Please model this.
Amino acid sequence: MNQETSISRNPVAALGRMVIFPVQKMGSVAIFFFKSLILIFSYPFQFSKIIQQIYFIGMKSLLVICLTGAFTGMVLGLQGYYTLSQFGSEGLLGAAVALTLIRELGPVLTAIMVIGRAGSAMAAEIGIMRISEQIDALETMDINPIRFLVSPRLAAAVISFPLLTAIFDTVGIFGGYLTGSGLLGINPGIYFSRVESSVIMQDVMGGFYKSLVFAIVVSTICCFQGYYTHLQSEGFGAKGVSLSTTSAVVISSVMVLVADYVLTTFLL
Amino acid sequence: MTEPLIQLKDVHKSFGQQHVLKGASLSIQKGEVTSIIGGSGSGKSVLLKHLIGLAKPDSGEILIEGKPIGSMSKKERKALKQKFSYMFQGSALFDSMTVSENIALPLKEKTKMTSTTIKKKVDEKLQQLELQGNENKNPSQLSGGMKKRVALARALVTDPEIVLFDEPTAGLDPVKKNAVHNMISDYQRKLGFTAVVVSHEIPDIFYISQSIAMLYEGKIWFQGKPEEIQQSSDPVIQNFILGLESNNDEMNGMATTKKTQQRYQEAMVHLERHKIAFSLIILTLNNLDELNEKLGFVVSQTVLRNFVSAVRKKISITDSCSMYGLNKIMLVLSSTNLEQAREFCTKLAKEIRGNNIVDVQPYPGFCFTVSAGFAEAQKGSSFREVLKSAESSQNIFHEFRVC
Model:
C-alpha cells in the first residue's frame, strides 16, 4: 500500500481509497464486458474460434456436470425423502428435487463447476499471454486482443451455460429418481407425475436467465483478471498469473452467489 | 538530408517514480538500419515501444513522415500500424498455436487472402528462414534460435515497411547471433524495409547498421554513423563501447577492432623508429551472401569461422587479425612490406585450397572466392587512410578460389 494512504498515517485517504478503488474496478469490468460484447458481432465473425471455445467450455465440462448433477440429485432425493417422510408426504419428492434443481442448484452449481474447470483456465491462459507479451504482439499486428481472446469466450459461455444447466437439471432429476424410487421405494409414476405437475415454464425460464447471467459474470471476470494480470499490485510474472487465477475463481464464485440472490428476488 | 521517416522529439516517459526517458530525440531515415544501443535497463525497449504505440509518451512528440502520431485519426493510425512489424525480445510467439499458424496469423486476421495464398506465403517464409519440417511443431518444442527465426518470419510475412527488433540476438550462441545479424541485414537489403534494432552486440551491430543511436540517462547521447561512434572521443561512449567489447571476438577468437588498432599504433612506432615496414590486408569473402541464400545463415557463419581459423594459423604472434564488417577480415602484418604481403596472400590462397572451408556444395561447380586488398603503411599515415587504400586495391589477381 502507498505510504500516503496507509491507514495509520491518513485514515481518510485510506477510506477514500477503499471506496474509489472497487468502484473504479467495477467500472472497468463493465467497460471490458461491453467492449467484448460488441466485438462479438464485428465482421468477420469468428465462428471457428467460438466453436472451439464451446468445445472447451461446454463439451469438456460435460462429464463433470453429469457427475455433479447425478450426485446432487441423488443426495437431494435422500435428504428430501427423510424430511418429507416426517410429514408423510414422500410423494412430493419429485417436485422437491425438480424445483430445487431447476430454480436454484442447477444454474449455481453448474456455474461453480465451470468456474473451476474453464474459468480458471481462461484466466491463466490469458494471463500467461499477457506476461509473455503475446497480447502486445497481437496489438502490434493490429489485432484487437479483446476481440481475439475475450469475445469468443464470452459468446461460447453464453451458449454453453444454459445447455450445461439443462443437462445438470435433467441428470439431477434422474439422480433423485434413482435414490427415491430405486433405493427408498417411492412409486416411479408418482415421482415423475409430481415433477411434471409442479414445474411450470416460469421456473425453467428463471433458471435459464440465471444461467445466462452467470455465463456473463464468469467469463467476464475470469477474462478480465487474466487480461490485466500485469496490473496485479502484489506480484508480477508467474506470481501475477497465480494471483489472477485465484482471484478470478474466488471473485467469480462469490459474484455468482451474489447475482443469484439478486436475481432470485426479482424472479420470485 | 531528407526528411526522416520517424522522428522523436524530446520524449519523456515515467513509470511511477522511475523517470525512464528524459527527453529522447531521435531520427530514423527511410530504408536504413538504425541501431539503438545502451546499457541494460536504460530504456531501449521502452523507446522502441513508443515507436509503435505500445507506450505513449508523457510529453514530447513522435512524428512519422512528418506527422505527429498524437494528432492522427483512428483510421490513419490503423493504416500506420499495418506498416509496422515488431519482433519481441522474448519472441512472443503464441504458444498454443503451431509454427505455421503463428506465421499465418497476421495474414489470416488482417487481410482478405484466401487460405491457399496464405499457405503459399507462409511456406515461402518458412523456406527462406530454414524452418521447413517444423511447421506443425509448437513453439515450446523449438530451440531459442528457431523461435527467433519464427518470430522474424511472423514479422516479415506481412511485407512491412518498418520492422522493429527488440534485442533479436539475446540469448543466442555466437554463431547464431551472427546468423541473425546476417539475416536482418540480408532481408533489409532485399526487401528494403526500414529497420530499428535494439541491441547489446557491440561491435557486431556496427557492421549491419547505417546509423547508431546511443541511449544514456534517458537521452539519446549520440546519433551518427558507426564509424563516427567508434572514433568518438566522448568518455561516456568510449567507456560504454569498450566495456561491452570483449578482448577477443567470442565467435572465432579474433582480436577486436580496437586491439588491431592498437597493434597498428605499435607497428607505426616501429616503422617510425626502426623503419620496419608493415602492411594491412583486407580479405573479403565474396560468396557469403550466396551461401546465406543457398545453404542458410548458420552454414555461412561456419564457413567464415573455418576460414578465419585457417588464416589465424598462418599469422605470427605479432600480427593481428580481426573482423571488419560482416564478411571482411582485417590483418595487420608486422615487418612485412607490400611485396611480402602479396606473397603472404598467394601462399595463403594456395594453402587454404586444401582445407575444408566449405564442407557442403550448394551446387556442382560452386567456387568459394575471397578477394584480398593490401597496402603498406607509410610514415605518419592514419589507420583509416591505410585501411582505405587497402580496401580500394581489391586485387582480383589474388583471388582465392576454393572449388
Remarks:
- Chain A touches chain B through 14 residues (CB under 8 Å).
- The two ends of chain A are 43 Å apart (CA to CA).
